[in-house]
Design a protein that fits this description.
Structural class: alpha/beta
GO cellular component, one term: cytoplasm
Largest sheet: 8 strands, antiparallel
Helix content: 25-40%
Keywords: Coiled coil, Cytoplasm, GTP-binding, Initiation factor, Nucleotide-binding, Protein biosynthesis
Strand content: 15-25%
Main location: cytoplasm
Family: Belongs to the TRAFAC class translation factor GTPase superfamily. Classic translation factor GTPase family. IF-2 subfamily.
Number of helices: 15
Bound molecules: guanosine-5'-diphosphate
Subcellular location: Cytoplasm
């Protein structure tokens, strides 16, 4: 209805256009951005989205090559529960004692930087696990440069290890394998390498491209060498940023502190943040009153790859929100207000992820090249069979990527991965666990359940040909 009156055309014509696109709508229904664009185009209009407008008002300073300086890598530690992620992060934190200080890093601000003996710096996100990693990615924030995948050598490659690997791969983040707990008598690092090889992940000593290192996070053995390997990976990535511009970065965490107000940890990714800067972070804003590093020291400036907690925002932004510095306080306030309004509107607007029923239409429109699929099943055999069959369905028009597969129920982590990678989830004889189902509804992720392999394959085939009827 709204778009019809904006274009001054009869509502029935808009509804007719939608129907010809295979979308049944009523006059009060809200359309997603893509459909709006197509419908408007049919009537000779071009849609301009306010949200894009907002991003555009944030001036992007083009960096000149000579302004770019090397920056520290930002690392996330992932892996199966109890394999030693926290122990590794703690060990690195505690052993990195700066001269003149009694202990290591004592504050938890969500991220910390350490300086190695060779003077090089590495920044760690202090929330281990792929959940936080993917939640941020679902918000459009790509912060991590390198992922350390921790695998306990007295155990096997476990479901969450596989998940972590899939999440890192879906994000295109290089991985280094930390084979942990080698101090234990039952440790068998070779078995881990072999199991990785079975997943087509060959570590360097097996002639592959993945770096790995044997460590004991508990006793600190091998940790320095592991960090050297992180630096090596960073060198290959040639990470650079321009420190001489207003800071931009991402929110890592935020909380309300009784005495100090909102405390927000942000990771500066480029530019330099200074006390007194006016900051916009997500829908919040404010002047930076004070900044602290992970050692609790008050600091005045923070350059690229530096985590800092800042005081002065008017609320708690969400992890994964971008932040920018504004010269003009009024402008920052205006954008914050617009964003708040947009967020309110978006909660009613249908902003959908891909669904199986929609694939055919999108392929026909020529805008859809890749379908990401997450596959969960009750037994390994059926997962592998489905994965093989699905991959074979790839055509010239559309590539089917199985971005994650595994045995077990559909979890929240699967849903977040689907949200971050715009994927559909296929369950074979498994259903989403309670919380996962709710999350899928909220994130609008298409989950399909099957108990017959051929049904799943047929549905996907039909969907690709635009023949699938929507699931009620
Ligand atoms: P997370 O769940 O991956 O964060 O795992 P934790 O770091 O909490 O470790 C789980 C358990 O394994 C704890 O009891 C640790 O003390 C133990 N652990 C972690 N790393 C090592 C190690 O290198 N050697 C030994 N022997 N135990 C370890």
């Amino acid at each position: 209805g709204e778009i019809a009156s904006m274009m001054d055309v009869p509502i029935t014509k808009v509804i007719g256009t939608c129907m010809s696109l295979g979308i049944m709508v009523t006059m009060n229904q809200r359309l997603d951005a893509e459909t709006l664009t197509i419908v408007a185009d049919e009537f000779g209009f071009e849609v301009e989205f306010i949200s894009t407008e907002i991003e555009e008002t944030i001036k992007v300073v083009e960096d000149r090559e000579e302004d770019l300086k090397s920056r520290a890598p930002i690392v996330t530690v992932m892996g199966h529960v109890d394999h030693g992620k926290t122990s590794l992060l703690d060990n690195i934190r505690k052993t990195n004692v700066i001269a003149g200080e009694s202990g290591g890093i004592t504050q938890h601000i969500g991220a910390y930087s350490v300086t190695l003996e060779n003077g090089k710096r590495i920044t760690f996100l202090d929330t281990p696990g792929h959940e936080a990693f993917t939640a941020m990615r679902a918000r459009g924030a790509q912060v991590t440069d390198v992922a350390i995948i921790v695998c306990a050598a007295d155990d096997d490659i476990m479901p969450q290890t596989k998940e972590a690997i899939s999440h890192a791969q879906a994000a295109g983040v290089p991985m280094i394998f930390a084979i942990n707990k080698v101090d234990k008598p039952a440790a068998n690092p070779e078995r881990i390498k072999e199991q990785l090889a079975q997943m087509n992940l060959l570590v360097e000593d097996w002639g592959g491209k993945y770096q790995s290192h044997e460590i004991s996070a508990k006793f600190g053995q091998g940790v320095n060498e592991l960090l050297e390997k992180v630096l090596l990976e960073a060198e290959i990535l040639d990470l650079k940023a321009n420190p001489n511009k207003p800071a931009i970065g991402t929110v890592v965490e935020a909380q309300l502190d009784k005495g100090r107000g909102y405390v927000t940890t942000i990771l500066v990714q480029a530019g330099t943040l200074r006390v007194g800067d006016y900051v916009l972070a997500g829908k919040n804003h404010g002047k930076v009153k004070a900044m602290y590093d992970e050692r609790g020291h008050s600091i005045k400036v923070a350059g690229p790859s530096t985590p800092v907690s800042i005081l002065g925002l008017d609320g708690a932004p969400t992890a994964g929100d971008k932040f920018n510095v504004f010269e003009d306080e009024r402008e920052a306030k205006q954008i914050a207000a617009k964003r708040t309004q947009l967020l309110r509107e978006q909660s009613v607007r249908t902003q959908k992820h891909i669904t199986l029923a929609e694939i055919g239409r999108r392929i026909a429109l020529g805008q859809f090249k890749e379908l990401n699929v997450i596959l969960k099943g009750d037994v390994d055999g059926s997962v592998e069979a489905l994965s093989d069959s699905f991959s074979k369905l790839s055509t010239e028009e559309i590539q089917i990527n199985i971005i994650h597969k595994g045995v077990g129920a559909i979890t929240e982590s699967d849903v977040m991965l689907a949200s971050a990678s715009d994927a559909i989830i296929i369950g074979f004889n498994v259903r989403p666990a309670g919380a996962a189902k709710q999350l899928a509804e909220k994130e609008e992720i298409d989950i399909r359940n099957y108990s017959i392999i051929y049904d799943a394959i047929d549905d996907l085939k039909d969907a690709m040909e635009g023949m699938l009827s929507p699931e009620m």
